[in-house]
Amino acid sequence: MLVVIANDLPPAVRGRMKLWFVEPRANMFVSGIKDSVAKKVIDYLHKYCPPESGLMIFNSSNTPPGYEIYGLGDTRRDVIELSGMPLVIEKSFVPVIQPKKTPGET
Predict the structure, then answer these.
(1) Which residues have C-beta within 8 Å of that of residue 9, sequence separation ≥ 6?
(2) Which residues contact 40 (CB under 8 A, 6 or more apart)?
(3) 12-21 LR contacts (CB < 8 Å, sep 24+)
(4) Can you give the pLDDT at residue 74?
(5) Helices marked H in 1-106 — which ranges?
(6) CA-to-CA distance for 53 and 8, rounded, in angstroms?
(7) What is the pTM of this model?
(8) pLDDT score recorded for residue 94
(9) How far is Cα 72 from Cα 53, in angstroms, rounded to an integer?
């Protein structure tokens, strides 16, 4: 499975993506294409999309964690790695870490 999320795509690329993918919402494409075709689509997107496109591509994989994440340009989210697992995080999200209280502390 290949999922492509973009900030904005050039009209020619978006039209071509509609040949292979379902577009459940604007600039989000989902397809169950085979791995060999997915690689060609990823190469195509990297070749014809400018950095302003802000691509985030999720490709299924046979190796843990079961997916790969590719990015191009300025996306609205960041990819972080936690214990070897790539995760997507909102750029404006700042985790709040509460200090541990010791026993007897109020």
Answers:
(1) 17, 27, 49, 53
(2) none
(3) 12/48, 13/44, 13/45, 13/48, 13/49, 13/53, 16/44
(4) 84
(5) 11-20, 35-48
(6) 5
(7) 0.76
(8) 63
(9) 7
Average pLDDT over residues 75-104: 77
Per-residue pLDDT tens digits for 3-54? 999 999 999 999 999 988 999 999 999 999 998 899 999 999 999 999 999 9
Write out the two tokens for 8: 């904005």
User: Which residue in the block uniquely carries the two structure tokens 């014809």?
Assistant: 48
Cβ-Cβ contacts under 8 Å for 32 (sequence gap 6 or more): 1, 2
Q: Where does 1-106 show beta strands of DSSP type E?
A: 2-5, 22-25, 28-31, 55-60, 67-72, 77-82, 85-90
Looking up tokens 């294409």, which residue turns up?
Answer: 33
